[in-house]
Amino acid sequence: MKKKIIITGSAGFIGSNLALELLKTQSNIHIIGIDNMSDYYDVSIKEYRLKKIEEAANNFSENKWTFIKGSIADKELIDQLFDEYKPSIVVNLAAQAGVRYSITNPDVYIESNMIGFYNILEACRHSYDDGESGVEHLVYASSSSVYGSNKKVPYSTEDRVDNPVSLYAATKKSNELMAHSYSKLYNIPSTGLRFFTVYGPAGRPDMAYFGFTNKLREGKTIEIFNYGNCKRDFTYIDDIVEGVKRVIECPPKKQVGDDGLPIPPYAVYNIGNSQPENLLDFVDILQQELIQAKVLPEDYDFDTHKKLVSMQPGDVPVTYADTTPLQRDFGFKPSTPLREGLRNFAEWYKEFYKI
């Protein structure tokens, strides 16, 4: 109630869905969204998401939505936003995503994921200046990629994650370390969320399910990495948003240690489905749902359009979330079945591309 919330990456997949959910379910809030509208993938999808947010804001007039086009790497802009709006909650979802893209385009990862996140932390720090109440909770996106090639499954937030296999993963682990130091030094409540393979309608076209669909529609061959011996913990977007929403409402408690200094009000959680699916099974369900939605013809010869190939640099064979702490602290566990989620995606795809 009566909160000002900054959501960075608000035209992105998770950011836009979170903004939509908050506008529809909360009262008297003002969401300030910022996004640089990068052309890393089709900008029309980002514009579609923003349009949905604007429609929701108009339908729920007690809530307010403000959008700013800009980069979190622009320190002056971030400081200006915090000074003007004085947010109670900050949800940092802006980042350059993608494991393989980080191998060919590393600069943008340092700019957005490192410098950008530093700017957010500094703005949160200075939100307490001059006796102001400041930011009550910083929630930020981490990634299952931080687990690298850990052999122990399911992945637990108690596991050591010191061996990233991509620059993207390294930047996300760095975000967790930076947030911890700011929580310790400045008593800023912060929670990192390690997302596991998020999918759903209006998702990112660089994700496998979306890219596969595009290629199958064009009659091209899809490549299935590690000869199909990959498992992914696919997590439906609505489950991700519900998890983020619950976390936002419960910042880690501020406490003082025996030394008289703050105990860092800091936490990290996994948000995943905890049911890793074999990639070949996933692709089989996807093609069934694409045929059911009439995105692909009924007689589509799927076998002639797939190719099993070796593992790509930066990839890992399995992702598998231990969500026990999430269930314990928030009473929530993602549960959307894969088929249901892919069906919703296929129906959205048909509508969006007017098939």
TrEMBL record:
It comes from the Bacteria. It holds the Pfam family Epimerase. SUPFAM superfamilies: NAD(P)-binding Rossmann-fold domains. InterPro entries: Epimerase_deHydtase, NAD(P)-bd_dom_sf. Residues 5-257 form the NAD-dependent epimerase/dehydratase domain. Keywords: NAD. Gene3D superfamilies: NAD(P)-binding Rossmann-like Domain, UDP-galactose 4-epimerase, domain 1. PANTHER family: EPIMERASE-RELATED. This is Protein CapI. It comes from Vagococcus humatus.
